[in-house]
Amino acid sequence: MQRVKTTQDLELKERLVAVNRVTKVTKGGRTFTFAAIVVVGNENGIVGYGLGKAGEVAAAMQKATEAAKKNLIQVPILKGTIPHEQESKFGGARVLLKPASQGTGVKAGGAMRAVLESVGVKDVLAKAKGSSNPHNLVKATIAALGEMRDARMVAQNRGVSLSTVFNG
How far apart are CA 76 and CA 121, in angstroms? Predict the structure, then answer.
């Protein structure tokens, strides 16, 4: 997982994944707060997520966006899709990402779709298994994307040429 240090020169777009209303019961009555999960990305290989909690939805979204900008990773994208198949798990949520041919589109549901579109993937097949909790789905999807490696990274890690990676 390659972290991105600065965000000043990046054009990040934010996507709201989920808002959860939380009720706290006290002797004075009920207190409502909101928890928002936001995904930010430049649609060119950089993505991050954040969680914000506040008394109002707008304030929670603002806090989540600030948290997401501090939590960015770099993802390799090849010809609009991911370099290889990848599985990942976070909590009860399991995700499976598969590269797809051009023109397929983003075949993913809800929280996974927001992450994949924010990172800039145009063609991918994705399946969420287990829990459908949006918080865990976002974290599992970002973990799967963080484990992606393209051929150049593999060659560099092994200390061999690019042709050796493909031909043995």
Answer: 10
Compare 99 and 156 and report the one with higher pLDDT: 99
Helix axes 134-146, 110-119, angle to 10 degrees: 40
Q: Which residues contact 127 (CB under 8 A, 6 or more apart)?
A: 95, 96
User: Hey, is 158 helix, strand or coil?
Assistant: helix
State the Cα angle at 132 between 116 and 137, rounded to 5°: 35
Give the tens place of pLDDT for each residue, 118-146: 999 999 999 999 999 999 999 999 999 99
> Which residues are CB-contacts of 66 (< 8 A; sequence separation ≥ 6)?
50, 52
23, 30, 34, 50 from 27: Cα distances, Å: 13, 8, 20, 32
Phi-psi region of 162 (alpha: psi -120 to 50; beta: other; left: phi over 0): alpha
